[in-house]
Amino acid sequence: MSPVRVLLADDQTLVRAAFAMLVESAKDMQVVGQAGTGREAVALARSERADLVVMDIRMPDLDGIEATRLIAADEDLAGVRVLVLTTYDTDEHIVEALRAGASGFLVKDTRPAELLDAIRTVAAGDSLLSPGPTARLIARFLRSPAATPATGGPDCLSDREREVLTLVGRGLNNTEIGEVLGLSPLTAKTHVSRIMGKLGARDRAQLVIVAYESGMVTPGNMSG
């Protein structure tokens, strides 16, 4: 298999250098570019055909949220995934980044092995969401009067699909969903894919937001 082509976007040179050394140490991935601003990140994503962008939120010229939105909206970059990095897991901008098209987030003090695993997870087409921080972030975001649905609502879903969406909103992966509902992981994955198609969601990250916005999972109640 070809190595995962990784683009690193962070305004701190030393941080980028440290991440670059880490990524290059993995045999299944390579660094294809480094950006110090969001605008540079978008340009390099286009020119270097990166598979995944590790994106800092706070950057000059164009922040990571707007850069993520531009990448997600570009049809020529349809296969490019974005993994957002933040200093704290309570950063209120994380949900905005997920709505903009990011496939997950990590805090910057995560362990090196976890960052590499996260890159593999997101590059493979999955979303990286931590249920606890995700619940807190979305709860805060939904208290804002400016919150608007990111995709279509769940009314078009079957009862089983609504059950699956609720579990996705709680942060469960396909194997865990299958265990709860008595399904195989493959069947659970199929349900998730159909739900994304019906709702027009880019990935599981947006499904989590839909689950919260529709009240299927409520802030402070991870059991739905």
Automatic annotation (TrEMBL):
Post-translational modification 4-aspartylphosphate, affected residues: 56
InterPro entries attached to this UniProt entry: CheY-like_superfamily, NreC/VraR/RcsB-like_REC, Sig_transdc_resp-reg_C-effctor, Sig_transdc_resp-reg_receiver, Tscrpt_reg_LuxR_C, WalR-like
Pfam families xrefs: GerE, Response_reg
Residue stretches making up the HTH luxR-type domain: 150-215
Keywords: DNA-binding, Phosphoprotein, Transcription, Transcription regulation
Domain of life the protein comes from: Bacteria
Molecular function GO terms recorded: DNA binding
One GO term of the biological process aspect: regulation of DNA-templated transcription
Domain Response regulatory as annotated: residue spans: 5-123
Gene3D superfamilies attached to this UniProt entry: 3.40.50.2300
Record-given protein name: DNA-binding response regulator
Protein species of origin: Streptomyces brasiliensis
